[in-house]
Structure formats: C-alpha cells, structure tokens
Specification:
Structural class: alpha/beta
Number of domains: 2
Distance between the termini: 22 Å
Largest sheet: 8 strands, parallel, barrel
CATH superfamily of the largest domain: Glycosidases
Number of helices: 22
Shape: globular
Oligomer: single chain
CATH topology of the largest domain: TIM Barrel
CATH architecture of the largest domain: Alpha-Beta Barrel
CATH class of the largest domain: Alpha Beta
Strand order of the largest sheet: 19-20-23-26-27-28-29-32
C-alpha cells in the first residue's frame, strides 16, 4: 500500500466510510479481469493479472451488497441513445483474452448473480486452439491449448444473453521491436523498427496492419458466431487515434482501454477500466471501486537529464542506464521527468534530440529505449521533458528569421535572453515545432509531457512582424512602446500573450494525443508569477491559467535560484500561495532544487528533506526534485528516499 499525504488520507477515509459522491447521471465504472483460478496463493502468482475464484465471488457479492448495478454493453448503448437511463452506481464487467476459466469459473457466477459481462477474445489464440493444436503461441512462450475457450463454449455464453463477445484483435496481443535497442512494444501502436533496413515502419503501414487484423477478426466472428463484433478491447490497453479510427471503420465504434477513471455514456469511444491484478483482496477492491475518478496517488518525481545516460561507448551507456533504472526502482517513486532533448552545453536550448525527427540532429535514438525501460523495469510513469520554443535550428539563416525578437530602443532585434527561442507567432516556427512533437509521439512510448521552462515571453517580446499582425487582431494595433506606456493596453497584451502561448501548447498536446491519447500534461512555471501576479508581464505565465490548462503545474520551488534569504520560509510561503487557488495544491507539482546553481554545489540531503517536510505540512500533495544525479548518487539514495518515496517504510533495512 502506498504512503499517502494527510489530505488524501482524509478523502480516502471519508470514501471508505461510504460518503463517496454519487456517480453522476450516465457515469459508470468498468472493471478489467483476466484469468480466474483456484490455485492462486495470495498475490505472489507469476500471473499478476489472475484473480482467485474466492476473491471474485467476494467482489461480486460486495457489488450486490453495496447497491452497484452491473450493466451490459446494450445498457450503455441504450443510455447513450437516450432510450433508457443508466441505473445508478453502474458497473461494466470485462474479461480479457478468452481463457477457459471464463466458462468454467466465471460463467456460472454470472448466471448465479445475473450479471452481464463482456468477453474479449484473441482471434488467433482461439483459432489455433480450435484447429487441434496442442500448444498456443502466447507472447514469447507457448501454453497448452486447453487454456483457451472453444467456439462451442463461446457460443453458449453468447446465447445466454449474459455475455457480449468483443474483439481483442486477431493477432495484436504481441510485441514488435520498437527501437534500435530491440525493446518490444505493443503491436497496435508501435511503428516497428526494421533492423535490416535501419528504418521505422510508416504510419501508413501501421494503418494497413490494423486494417488487415480487423478484417481477419470480422471474418472470423461472422464465420464462427454469425455476427460481427461491435466492441474492440485493445491488447495491453494500448491504442491511439489511428487504432480507434480503424476500429470504427470495422463497425466497432466502442473501444476499451486500461486507463483508470470514470466513464460517461456521452462518450463510449474509449472506455476506461480499473485493472484487477495481484489477486486483489476485497478490501483493495472496495477501495479501488469507491475512489475511482476522485482519488489519485500523490506524485513523486525525479527529474532526470538524459544527457547523463548518453555516452558514445555502448557499454558505458548500458551501465549508466542500469544505474538509473536501479536507483529509480529503489526510490519507490511513481514519476520521472525524462529529458528528450540534448543540451550538452547546459543553456536550456535543444541542440539535438534523442529521437529521430525531421528538423534537428538526432544525437542518438535513445529516449524511447530509456523511457520504456523505466516504465517496465522501474514501474514509473515517464513524462517527455521537452522545450516549447527553445530549439536551435541548424540552418542559421532560418534560425535568425524565425526567432523571438525583442524591442530595443527603436528597433526590433533578435532576443538577447539566455534562452534562444523560436517565435510562437511565426508560422514557419510553429510548423517546425509541431513536426518535432509529432515525431516524438510517433517514435516513443511515454505517459506525459513536461513543457520546459523556456515557454515564456518577456515584456519587450515578441517584436516580430508576425507578432505585430496578431496583436492587431487583439485590437492592439500600436507599436510596443505605446503598449508599454498604456496600462490598460499592457494588461491586455500581457494576458493575450499568456493565452496565446497556452493555446499553442494545447495544439502541441493534441498533435501528440493522435499517437499517445492518454498522456498527461505538466508545464514548468517560474515562482515569480505566483508570488507576484504582476510579473506575468515578464513571463506570460499565470498560475490561474496553468491550473485550468494542464493536468499539473510543475512549479519551480527553487529558493536558491530566487536568492531567498530564508529558503524554508520561502517554500512555506509559495505553498500557502498555491493553496489559495482552487485545486492549487492538488494540481501542483513542487519541484525542489538539488543543486545550488549559484555556486554549483549540491543542496544537502538534510535540507532537501526539510523542504519536503515543509511542503507536506503545508498540505502539498505532489513534489520532486531536479536534477537527479544518478551517476554521483546525489541526492544520496538512502537519505532522499525517506522524503520522496511512496513506500510505507522508506528506510534502509539493516
């Protein structure tokens, strides 16, 4: 059980006492089950997705005792079409993969409780089992054919009226090589790496693969069941907008993934589910159902420079990666902000990228490898840490033409700020940045985006001609000096620039969501716009706007960078300021600094722990630190985990 902040504990206690807010009209919860067995021992079975028969009975009984109504796909569609309302406290049961236990263990319980359910079958597995094969190809191994259902069993369950037969694809429940290092990733969303040609699969090829797979599925269902599937349950919960489009084209308008949360019949495009795993006990099951959609685990972050992993020597690079993975695993945190751009000179501007792209040099195709290893070996969510404007385009003439410009004296000149940024107002700059983000989304698997602290516009920027054209649309058809001298015009100009930059970031997010639809967003924010809202004019940043626009605001809680005379008091003060906004503590990730960049010295672990304690006492839910120097072990693992770990007992065992 993860340790939780006191604010979250209060909410959990209230929830478990039965005072959870009722589901709104049309809302429902979906549960994801897999194999059901009698021989499971506690939660230690190698099949972490399996649940014991006795625990399943307890789950079903609890749902009935607590007044939950188990609904069918027909019920969801009828409610969506306005034919009849969805019952209160609605729950959708789903069972993936097509194991024999669905017939021998689950089906009798469905009849006993009169519960409908959705069964997602993998076409190739069922077909192999029905063809007389003794062993079925199952990922990288084989399993006995009797592990899977027969068509007769599937038909009997379907004909009972209790079981909806959904597609789990024909043959997408497998991995494809997704990078030059050989990591296998979900077939439905991965542009496969071809070692022979040294190239990635195209989006067009991925679409053809999906279309062919669904065509085989539809043909199989029609031949064996006499009816097409209308629901697509994505293997591993991995899907993107291309997947959803192709499923809808194959007459499967309802998709089901594995992102947790509540659902509403107003949108059945992709249904979220609670993943029932590790032979979930009744207590944990009750908790998961009751807090679905209202309680999230606190976020604990290590902010990592991929430049520290990179090394031209592959052996040293491998050692660096292993050291990072081991450290993150031992920290027992749940999030890593991972640099996706190369910044070897440390000026905050991307000189190259760690993924193949159309616009900047690729230092190495490394981000996808490290992000995937962190996810699968250290069990963390990885956010791609990316610049918004700070890209150094190799073409110097182009770079000068599309860069941010400032007003100096009576002329517009290239910005002299230390961050060399492209202008968000220049159409060519916008096109380049969008292409970079699209290439990131195509080439890598990640959980979120962290927008870098280069996303700002000073009070004398942008002074380019394209920016001036935009200002005129805002009713500010005047030179910058005139704007600066007119307080009303200055306020409007400041707020419109803040909104304009946020709109552009929204566009980048939507581009990424074509390929990574479940990503979360976080945006770095300097502390000054929170401390003094008037300073929005120096940054085009607003805490209020950030809270509305992004899943989280990554507030740079860095007292040494801000030259605070009393760092602890400074941190307490900004936590109180954040708390004064609705959702300010819940949606803010406080980023502490582990290095004092004024002198280049590490911030002592004792000090970092004190700062974390101050944040917790102030009610902060989410926090982390930058940078995590896993090479030099700073902050020292055995010390910093006492403050950042989500483990119940984050101390070294002696």
């Amino acid at each position: 059980m993860l340790a939780r902040n006191s604010v979250v504990l209060t909410l959990i206690f209230a929830t478990l006492m039965g005072v959870r807010p009722s589901l709104a009209s049309g809302e429902f919860i979906a549960l994801s089950y897999h194999d059901v067995r009698d021989d499971l021992y506690d939660d230690l079975d190698e099949d972490s997705a399996a649940v014991g028969t006795l625990n399943l009975i307890r789950h079903f009984s609890w749902l009935k005792d607590k007044g939950y109504n188990v609904v069918s796909v027909d019920d969801l569609i009828a409610a969506a079409d306005g034919l009849r309302p969805l019952p209160e406290k609605a729950v959708l049961l789903t069972f993936d993969d097509g194991y024999t236990s669905m017939y021998t263990k689950v089906f009798p319980l469905l009849k006993l409780f009169n519960y409908p359910a959705t069964l997602a079958i993998m076409g190739s597995w069922i077909e192999q089992a029905g063809s007389g094969a003794e062993q079925i190809e199952y990922g990288i191994t084989t399993v006995p054919a009797e592990k899977f259902l027969t068509w007769d069993q599937i038909k009997e369950m379907r004909d009972s009226g209790l079981v909806e037969i959904a597609s789990h694809s024909y043959n997408l429940h497998r991995g494809l090589v997704g990078n030059p290092q050989g990591n296998t990733q979900p077939a439905a969303v991965t542009l496969a790496w071809n070692k022979t040609t040294g190239e990635y699969e195209t989006v067009q090829s991925l679409r053809r693969r999906l279309r062919e797979d669904m065509g085989r599925t539809v043909e199989l269902f029609e031949r064996m069941l006499g009816k097409r599937p209308r629901v697509m349950v994505w293997p591993f919960g991995a899907y993107n907008q291309i997947c959803v489009q192709e499923a809808a084209r194959a007459a499967m308008p309802i998709s089901i993934g594995l992102e947790e949360g509540l659902n509403n019949v107003k949108d059945l495009t992709v249904i979220k589910r609670i993943f029932i795993e590790k032979n979930m006990s009744l207590g944990d099951f009750a908790y998961e159902v009751r807090v679905a959609g209202i309680v999230n685990d606190p976020i604990r972050v290590a902010h990592v420079d991929l430049d520290f992993v990179f090394d031209p020597d592959p052996k040293q690079r491998s050692r660096n990666l292993d050291k990072l993975i081991e450290r993150i695993h031992l920290l027992k945190i749940n999030t890593v902000f991972l640099q996706a751009f190369a910044d070897p000179d440390g000026d905050g501007v991307a000189d190259a990228l760690y993924f193949p792209n159309r616009r900047l040099p690729t230092r190495m195709d490394l981000f996808n490898r490290v992000a995937w290893q962190l996810r699968t070996r250290a069990d963390v969510n990885v956010y791609a840490w990316m610049p918004v404007l700070g890209f150094r385009i190799p073409d110097e003439k182009l770079m000068r033409r599309i860069s941010m410009r400032e007003y100096a004296g009576d002329a517009a000149i290239p910005s002299r700020d230390q961050y060399k940024r492209l202008s968000p107002f220049h159409p060519e700059a916008r096109k380049i940045i969008k292409e970079i983000y699209e290439d990131l989304a195509k080439r890598a698997s990640f959980s979120g985006l962290l927008f870098h602290d280069d996303a700002f516009i000073r009070d004398n920027e942008d002074a380019g001609s394209h920016a001036a054209d935009e200002y005129a649309k805002w009713g500010l058809n005047m030179p910058i000096p005139a704007i600066l001298e007119d307080e009303d015009a200055l306020k409007k100009w400041t707020r419109m620039k803040t909104e304009y930059l946020a709109d552009f970031i929204d566009e980048l997010t939507e581009i990424v969501r074509v390929y990574r639809p479940e990503i979360k967003t976080a945006r770095n924010m300097y502390a000054m716009p929170l401390i003094d809202p008037q300073s929005e004019r120096w940054f085009a940043q607003s805490f209020e706007i950030f809270l509305k626009r992004y899943d989280h605001t990554a507030l740079m809680a860095m007292p040494y960078m801000e030259k605070a005379s009393d760092p602890g008091q400074w941190i307490e003060d900004i936590a109180k300021l954040a708390a004064s906004y609705p959702g300010g503590l819940e949606k803010t990730i406080f980023e502490l600094q582990s290095v004092d960049w004024r002198n280049g010295k590490p911030v002592p672990e004792k000090t970092l722990l004190e700062h974390m304690g101050i944040l917790q006492k102030a009610g902060a839910v989410n926090y982390g630190y930058y940078p995590d120097d896993f090479i030099k072990n700073h902050p020292a693992l055995n010390e910093i985990k006492k403050g950042v770990s989500l483990s119940t007992f984050p101390y070294v065992k002696r």
